[in-house]
Amino acid sequence: MSMQTNSWKTLLGPQYRARLVLLSLALWLHATNTMLTSTTMPSVVSDIGGHRLLSWAFSLYLIGSVVSGTQMSKLSRTAGIRNAMSGAGCLYLIGCFICAVAPNMPCFLIGRLVQGLGGGGLVSLVYLSQHQFFPNTLIPRVVVSNSVVWMVAAFTGPLIGGSFATYGLWRLAFIFFGLQALLFIAVCLRQLAPEKMDTNQPMQSIAWWNMVLLVASVFCVSVAGMQSYWFASALLVLLGVASLYWFVVFDQRLGQRRMLPAGMLDFYNPVFVGLLLTLVQSAALMSFVVYGPVVLVHVYELSPLQTGFVLITEALAWCTAALLFAGLKPAQEKNLLRIGSVLVTIGLFLQGVVVPNTQVIYIVMVLTIACAGFGASWGYLIRRVVDSAAVEDKDRASSMLPVAQQMGFAFGAAYAGVVANGLGYSGSSSVAEIQDIAPWVFFAFVPFALYGNVCAWRFFLESKASTPVK
Q1: 362 is in which domain, residue-wise?
Q2: What is the mean pLDDT of the chain?
Q3: Are 246 and 216 in contact (CB under 8 A)?
Q4: How many CB atoms lie within 10 A of CB 18?
Q5: Containing H/E element for 371?
Q6: Is residue 109 a part of any domain in this protein?
């Protein structure tokens, strides 16, 4: 295969450009959502009330996102990519409209749940359809393009939301993104041809009782992150882990109705190992996202805006590393994934060393190490997971990658709360107390990263038996 087929010129050429734009639009709608909501929520609360329900604006979006993400492979098989994408776009549009006209917080939260169903569906379909829209050799470059979208969203999301909120026009912010969802639907219907569906294939029913276990897992973890008592948080996290485990157990007994690929409790299955690697490393990277701003504001006396720019370092490092390593040959992927996992571990350990009492530039450096490690290998991890899946499970594996990532973020955020609260952190903690607590909050995530190294090593040992990447 010539290098030309694995080049940016090929990806951005007329054959693939329109579909790359379509996936970028889908990912943009989901990626900007958190930043937009974070900057508009103070205005929302002051206008319609409901400050006690504030955290649910984020939790319900996550619940909707995870639930819809698990259903996208099934929906795309029965309805087609075109219909599934436009349907997810419609849900996102409806959610934006509900939020924009909400007279009170409960109504607003309904809109957030519907938005989550649409946004989670969109991001899962991005991962699922990229393997159908592009040749396998271009997937790492497609992932780099997705990383650029995430980075731009990290920069512009707060700016867009803050601009509307500053002038008391938070409702227009949701209308603005609703219009973008309408544009996405139009592009989707124009660029994707209607698919010929097998009308004799019955629509597989949803195992609702198993879906309840999944929702319970996300619910427990979300509530755990809101608790101020470490014991209650720890108990909820354990309940969340137990619910997730039994969700997987029961799902594997559903045959063709299952949401997950087969062999999700087999530690010799490279698909399971790859998804587990995604989950644990995503959880590990949440340590600074959750607790880092506390240290930067109180210890280093940075403004919220300056703190935001430090956090943007993570997206920038991820994107830059993905861009630099996008053209590797398949034989080099094994070393990159293993080295990337080691860099995540080193970066996390160094956070505990340098963050509590040093200069901000060193914090930026250790963040760059950790996020670059995962970012450089992310595209190849995605490709290898899907390549290792059985033919009938490739769609399931694709759609579960973002679900595993979001579950990792949720568990990581809750775990950070458990550790910090267990060490005595509270809103009234002094600077000295925060400096004493901070190292152990970051060190507590090192075991996640170390287990990620085990997964990265095992992933390639076991994937030798799978279909090789060509």
Answers
A1: 261-470
A2: 83
A3: no
A4: 13
A5: helix 360-388
A6: yes
